[in-house]
Amino acid sequence: MKKNLLFLVLTICLFLTNQLGAQTNYYYGTGGAMNSNVWSTTDGGSPAGVYNQFVNLTTGGILNFKNPATVVGPTSSWFGATAINVYANVKFTSNSGFIFGTFSGVIPIYVAPGVTFDGGFQIVTGNATHGWIKNGAGTLAFLNGGNLGGFTLNEGTVVCSSNNSLGAGALIINGGILAASYNFPLKNTNTTINGDFQVGALTANCPVAISNSNITFLTSNIGSAMRKITIGGSGTYAFGAITGTGAAGIEVLGTSTGIIQFNAANSYTGGTKLTTGILQLGGANALSGNVILNGGTLKTGNTTGFSNAASGTLQLTDNSTISLGSGVHSLNFSASNAVVWTAGKKLNIKGWLGTAGLTGTGGQVFIGTDATGVTTDQLAQITVNGSPAAILATGEIVSSVNGLPAAPTLIPPTGATVDATADVTFVDDPAWRAAITAVKIVGVVLTPSIDYDITAGILTLKPSGLNPALTLTGGRLLVIESTGYNNTAISVTIGAGVATQMVIRNQPNTPATSSSTAVALATQPTLVFLDQYGNKTGTNSVTATVASGSWTLGGTTSVAAVAGSVTFAGLTATNTNPADLTPATIIFSSTVPAVTSNPFILPIITAAPITPTPVTVDAPFDVTFTENATWRNAISSVILSGVALEPAAYNKTVAGKITFTPSASVLLQTTGTKQIIIISGSNPNQVVSQAIANGAAS
Known about the structure:
The chain has about 700 residues and is mainly β.
């Protein structure tokens, strides 16, 4: 508790420092597109600043959005911002380029309640010392392609559109909602959970999120307290190894149809509580400590079940279900006869296979190691496949009844894809078919006529009904429940459909140096082919060509997809326009509609000085070059043989030349070959070797 309080105090101090410190506040002064000078240093004042979407706060500053903004690009550059406050909706369009900048440490971004800061697929760059702190009850959504630092979520909603969105450093969750608009594992190798939070969000509640997006956490530490994780979307939210000490534990609450999945052996000691929703095992020994079933469904696997060694007791406090996966595995609990179960509540174990009164032949549940693992009253609260339970001398819970007739055996479809219906066949039993109460895939109840049709001997699955259980690819367990019959189940594999669209996942980025010769792009583009439901698919080839700008694209420009993913390597850019910065885009073409990259900037081609002859100490002389006003105006100093030349000794005001005056500097009054270095901003230095001869005899 003290640790969490100290962390909260430090976070508030950092936030107040940025809010109240001696930083200039910049206010977005109008509504609409950010393509003119729209900033003011006065709250509510008329726009008078020099900044549009290009902001260079060399001494730091706070950006305040108090009017709706649409950023149309081509590129937004926010250098030096120390804090960002968002009080009105901000939207980056698909062609608005990317946000980039040299951020100074950790930047708090406050988004007010009911407000959305939607960065779309824009990229934020930074290094390992940079990071973000999300404050405010509003929504922040962006693609963070280069932030190598960490991210702190204090409140509100963050919607990630790539595995880079939260950087690659430490992820700290103190509260709020973490949602997504894409399936990915987070890059953050360490996640610290200091408070209760929600994972996933329904599109209906958060329009920039996608309901069924999946998120995977690598490793997490929950400190020393019970943390509540609420399921907010319909995706699968997977956690790697979770550690914690003392009372550290996990409570899962489900407000939607999504799944919390534990993928690794966890070592927190405060136990696991399932209140509502689905908690699914994705690896062995994932349950830690005592287990409390307070509602919902505990699944031993999506299809194949995983075993869990005895780690604690089992307590039942509300009607709950244990759903066993396929294959031989066991779920083990310590003897629970001393634990109080809530009277009248039922635990149903589903998916058990075997003969009544004998050990199971598939998934098994053990409570203790002998027949005293539960009391007589507790055993009466357990059913197996809807029938009364028995406990064996080994502590295994089994069915005590063989009376229900067997349901037909299901035969799965072959070669099924999301693009067409798929038929599950069986030997018809009209009585069984008429008594069907539910058809489920991965626990999701399918809707008759919309998601499936059933006729004599055939169950037809219909992805066109748009149920995510049928439009996502992979193997999944199909279960049919029919009154008066045992459940029947089969694993159904549904493949991706034909590619219908192409999406850029990683945008190409500016070469690190001048591109007057072929230079590799700093970020090589990656794309994916998606079918009509957003599943990766195909081996289509993609060809990259120049879409806009005076430049040449080189390297390997045609690449074939592997399992739907396209990765370019070694694409180069050669700038053939010496006049100025060149907004550049790349178009990617294939058998599906082409897509064009966000604009990026090719570094200018610096002017090449030409050495004039002859030159003497008696008169001014010129070093000429192909005119480039940007380069010429940025000249800040001239070094002559290692010594800075006095500004009065050279003149850069005339296009296409620099004029040197020997009478204004002793450095130019001695004969010989001089090395002249011309320094112009961040451009590469230009070096001229200049011979200076004697003057007339005096």
